[in-house]
Design goal:
- The protein is mainly alpha-helical.
- It has six helices and three strands, in the order αααβββααα.
- A hairpin with a 2-residue loop joins strand 2 (about 140-145) and strand 3 (about 145-150).
- Helix 2 crosses helix 4.
Length: about 170
């Protein structure tokens, strides 16, 4: 796939702004829920670890202490696994929502203008003889000989999310 030249930034700026605004709105709604879940999982893991440690001390045996250590480690690992699963689910949900909203652009009255802009971009990159066709999910697919350019809405949304990864990563890593 051919990289987009710098002048494409202005053509894609409205799409990028719309995707960013929608991603932020979706992420804000999901961020609180993920934080609460992660905190609850960590709290449960810490409580379980504390209970195991108390039992070991009360028993007063080395075997009980070793058992407590193993259980505590398992509980922490499990809590950490669940937190990571929650974060991954949040990341996937954000991607799904962004893709859904990008797909909805096809119904937007400005979609024909976006298609024209994408056709122009494809011609700039691959030349005027490029074969252009509409992507099944919206946007444009272009080919010229062995070269191809995917300006489909799903690919543009994925590229925009990837470009914004530093901005949105804290939503599922904090």
């Amino acid at each position: 796939m051919t990289a987009l030249p710098p002048q494409a930034e202005s053509a894609l700026a409205p799409l990028r702004a719309a995707v960013l605004a929608r991603a932020r709105a979706a992420a804000e709604g999901l961020e609180g829920e993920a934080s609460r879940r992660a905190r609850a999982l960590l709290d449960d893991g810490e409580r379980e670890a504390e209970a195991v440690a108390r039992r070991a001390v009360e028993a007063g045996t080395a075997a009980a202490r070793e058992d407590a250590t193993r259980r505590s480690a398992r509980a922490r690992r499990r809590a950490h696994e669940l937190e990571l699963q929650g974060r991954e689910a949040l990341r996937r949900e954000l991607e799904r929502r962004v893709q859904d909203r990008v797909a909805a652009l096809r119904a937007d009255p400005a979609y024909p203008d976006l298609q024209d802009s994408l056709r122009g971009r494809a011609a700039e990159v691959l030349g005027p003889d490029a074969v252009l066709e509409e992507h099944p999910d919206g946007g444009i697919l272009a080919t010229s000989g062995r070269r191809s350019l995917d300006l489909g809405l799903p690919a543009l949304a994925a590229a925009t999310l990837a470009a914004m990864s530093e901005e949105v990563a804290p939503l599922w890593t904090e």
